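Colleagues,

Please find the record for the two-part complex below.
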Amino acid sequence: MKRSLGRKTLIQPAPVWVIATYDEQGKPNAMAASWAGICCSKPPAVCVSLREATYTYHAIKARKAFTVNLPSCDHAVAADFLGIASGRDIDKLAVAGLTPVRAEQVDAPLIEEFPLNLECALVHEHTIGLHTLFVGEILDVKADEGILNDKGRPAIDLLRPFVYAVAEGVYRSIGETLGSAFDIGNALTRE
Amino acid sequence: MKRSLGRKTLIQPAPVWVIATYDEQGKPNAMAASWAGICCSKPPAVCVSLREATYTYHAIKARKAFTVNLPSCDHAVAADFLGIASGRDIDKLAVAGLTPVRAEQVDAPLIEEFPLNLECALVHEHTIGLHTLFVGEILDVKADEGILNDKGRPAIDLLRPFVYAVAEGVYRSIGETLGSAFDIGNALTRE
């Protein structure tokens, strides 16, 4: 028997990505976001939903660009801080000891200390309700050499991303491997 | 030194959600999707991006509704199968031994065996490129009693969702707790 829980965003898990921007005056800022994901393969694109109340919302509108920066487990405290404080009040990156570096392809900063960075050009926005969904086309991915596997791709066990457990309000690391995608399901038709 | 990896969807991790629909003739179908996430708090909404080539794309267009069904680690093989085969060719739910049950709030089926189910009404769609992003307003969440914690919320360690490691093409479980969100970051300003 299923229990009805009502109209709630109770689905697990959500990513923890850090969105970095320049504001209208050129000040770098960053915030943690979990209402986000990949949303297209060709062109490669991500979406992130932000409230108008955030400083980042207005910076993306002004600059038509943002970066997605992936914190590793070692950066959980810094990423959480970037989700608590507002860039209106303080220089969050300075307080967190993080270094903004101008992106090559878009008008936004990368966070140097985070191992994976996506340079995104704003290509679409849609106000859903309290949140506005921004779609960014990925114009480049930058990665620390140390997180790349032998195929030159960012390995999840070197990257060590973490997720946001929505119902509990905690961060969780990534666990063991269950199997290969587009592979283990073939067992059902081989039987 | 950062290495440039080009225009790719190389960001980790992505959720594994199963999208269930009725087609125009009323046949239930389901597919696994990872280009998906929560996209609004008020109204509560999720987004999922699908290629026009999928059977589910046309079912969502026809019925203006879908459900998001969360497979646990125990359902990894079934979920993978739902991402390989097409509902055009076979009755995927029957092959996977899964039971479609009509949702209460929307014109779509829930998957009975999966522990968490979101009933979503299509409120927006936007073609980005190869993928079209569908936004669904969550009209109800249904959960198995056995996954609820003492606050009546779906506990991640009972739910046992898994993620898709994009660069490796494997499924991974959820790991250990790193800390509380909107909390551990306060250490940076208390110092």
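The two ends of chain B are 31 Å apart (CA to CA).

Comments are welcome before we finalize the supplementary table.
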